[in-house]
Design goal:
Elements: E1 2-5, E2 25-27, E3 32-42, E4 47-53, E5 60-61, E6 64-66, E7 70-77, E8 84-86, E9 93-99
Antiparallel strand pairs: 1-3, 2-8, 3-7, 4-6, 4-9, 5-7
Protein backbone atom coordinates (compact mmCIF):
# COMPACT_ATOMS: atom_id res chain seq x y z
CA UNK A 1 0.00 0.00 0.00
CA UNK A 2 1.18 3.48 -0.80
CA UNK A 3 -0.23 6.66 0.70
CA UNK A 4 0.10 10.40 0.30
CA UNK A 5 -1.49 13.60 1.52
CA UNK A 6 -4.05 15.37 -0.61
CA UNK A 7 -2.35 18.66 0.43
CA UNK A 8 1.32 18.68 -0.64
CA UNK A 9 2.12 21.58 1.72
CA UNK A 10 1.93 19.36 4.80
CA UNK A 11 4.87 17.66 6.49
CA UNK A 12 5.81 14.22 5.24
CA UNK A 13 5.66 11.50 6.40
CA UNK A 14 2.19 12.51 7.51
CA UNK A 15 0.52 11.92 10.81
CA UNK A 16 -2.13 9.61 9.45
CA UNK A 17 -4.87 10.62 11.85
CA UNK A 18 -5.04 14.33 11.14
CA UNK A 19 -5.43 16.61 8.19
CA UNK A 20 -4.77 20.33 8.38
CA UNK A 21 -7.36 20.88 5.63
CA UNK A 22 -10.23 19.07 7.35
CA UNK A 23 -13.35 21.06 8.11
CA UNK A 24 -14.18 21.97 11.68
CA UNK A 25 -17.84 21.33 12.38
CA UNK A 26 -20.47 20.62 15.01
CA UNK A 27 -22.09 17.18 14.94
CA UNK A 28 -25.47 17.34 16.66
CA UNK A 29 -26.70 14.51 18.88
CA UNK A 30 -27.93 11.68 16.66
CA UNK A 31 -26.19 13.28 13.68
CA UNK A 32 -24.00 11.69 11.00
CA UNK A 33 -21.37 13.12 8.70
CA UNK A 34 -18.79 11.94 6.19
CA UNK A 35 -15.31 13.28 6.96
CA UNK A 36 -12.56 13.65 4.35
CA UNK A 37 -9.23 12.67 5.88
CA UNK A 38 -7.01 14.12 3.18
CA UNK A 39 -5.17 10.78 3.02
CA UNK A 40 -4.98 9.09 -0.37
CA UNK A 41 -4.18 5.38 -0.47
CA UNK A 42 -3.20 3.13 -3.32
CA UNK A 43 -4.10 -0.44 -2.42
CA UNK A 44 -2.22 -3.19 -4.21
CA UNK A 45 -4.04 -6.19 -5.70
CA UNK A 46 -5.17 -8.49 -2.90
CA UNK A 47 -5.17 -5.76 -0.22
CA UNK A 48 -8.17 -4.46 1.70
CA UNK A 49 -8.40 -1.70 4.29
CA UNK A 50 -10.72 -1.89 7.28
CA UNK A 51 -11.76 1.33 9.01
CA UNK A 52 -12.47 0.84 12.71
CA UNK A 53 -13.74 3.23 15.38
CA UNK A 54 -10.98 4.97 17.36
CA UNK A 55 -12.18 8.32 18.55
CA UNK A 56 -10.84 10.82 21.05
CA UNK A 57 -13.55 13.41 20.42
CA UNK A 58 -16.68 11.54 21.53
CA UNK A 59 -18.02 10.45 18.14
CA UNK A 60 -18.08 6.96 16.63
CA UNK A 61 -16.70 5.99 13.23
CA UNK A 62 -18.82 3.51 11.33
CA UNK A 63 -16.75 0.44 10.43
CA UNK A 64 -16.20 0.02 6.71
CA UNK A 65 -14.07 -1.74 4.12
CA UNK A 66 -11.80 0.07 1.67
CA UNK A 67 -11.25 -1.92 -1.52
CA UNK A 68 -10.47 0.84 -4.01
CA UNK A 69 -7.65 3.34 -4.16
CA UNK A 70 -8.40 6.99 -3.48
CA UNK A 71 -8.99 9.42 -0.64
CA UNK A 72 -10.15 7.84 2.61
CA UNK A 73 -13.45 9.23 3.86
CA UNK A 74 -14.91 8.12 7.17
CA UNK A 75 -18.57 8.20 8.16
CA UNK A 76 -19.01 9.26 11.78
CA UNK A 77 -22.03 9.48 14.06
CA UNK A 78 -22.81 11.10 17.37
CA UNK A 79 -24.75 8.66 19.54
CA UNK A 80 -24.44 10.96 22.55
CA UNK A 81 -27.06 13.29 23.98
CA UNK A 82 -25.07 16.47 23.33
CA UNK A 83 -23.52 18.03 20.23
CA UNK A 84 -19.82 17.31 19.63
CA UNK A 85 -17.20 19.47 17.94
CA UNK A 86 -15.03 17.66 15.40
CA UNK A 87 -11.90 19.51 14.34
CA UNK A 88 -8.64 19.02 12.52
CA UNK A 89 -6.31 16.71 14.42
CA UNK A 90 -9.05 14.76 16.20
CA UNK A 91 -8.61 11.01 16.03
CA UNK A 92 -11.78 9.58 14.51
CA UNK A 93 -10.77 6.15 13.20
CA UNK A 94 -8.01 3.65 12.57
CA UNK A 95 -7.44 1.90 9.27
CA UNK A 96 -5.84 -1.53 9.14
CA UNK A 97 -4.60 -2.93 5.82
CA UNK A 98 -4.59 -6.67 5.20
CA UNK A 99 -3.01 -8.59 2.34
CA UNK A 100 -4.45 -11.76 0.88
CA UNK A 101 -2.80 -14.82 2.41
CA UNK A 102 -2.06 -17.68 0.06
CA UNK A 103 -3.14 -21.13 1.22
CA UNK A 104 -0.28 -23.47 1.96
CA UNK A 105 -0.27 -26.70 -0.02
CA UNK A 106 1.05 -29.99 1.37
CA UNK A 107 3.43 -32.33 -0.45
CA UNK A 108 0.51 -34.09 -2.12
CA UNK A 109 -0.80 -30.79 -3.48
CA UNK A 110 -3.79 -30.75 -1.14
CA UNK A 111 -4.59 -27.99 1.30
CA UNK A 112 -2.99 -28.56 4.68
CA UNK A 113 -4.94 -28.52 7.92
CA UNK A 114 -4.14 -26.55 11.04
CA UNK A 115 -1.65 -27.84 13.61
CA UNK A 116 -4.46 -28.67 16.05
CA UNK A 117 -6.00 -31.31 13.74
CA UNK A 118 -5.34 -34.89 14.90
CA UNK A 119 -4.67 -37.70 12.46
CA UNK A 120 -6.85 -40.84 12.48
CA UNK A 121 -5.68 -43.30 15.09
CA UNK A 122 -3.73 -40.63 16.93
CA UNK A 123 -3.73 -40.09 20.65
CA UNK A 124 -7.05 -38.53 21.57
CA UNK A 125 -5.93 -37.60 25.06
CA UNK A 126 -5.00 -33.93 25.60
CA UNK A 127 -1.23 -33.42 25.69
CA UNK A 128 -1.33 -31.99 29.23
CA UNK A 129 -2.75 -35.34 30.47
CA UNK A 130 -0.33 -37.70 28.70
CA UNK A 131 1.89 -39.65 31.06
CA UNK A 132 -0.07 -38.67 34.17
CA UNK A 133 -2.08 -41.90 34.52
CA UNK A 134 -1.41 -44.05 37.55
CA UNK A 135 -0.14 -47.58 36.93
CA UNK A 136 -2.60 -50.26 38.11
Amino acid sequence: MKYERANDGLAFPPTLYSNEGADVFLLNDGGRATVSTGIIVQLDAGEVGIVLPHSDCGVDAISSFITKSGEIKVEIRNDGSTAKHVKSGDTIATMLVFSKVEEKRGRSGTKTKGAGKREKGGDSQPSHRRGTEEAR
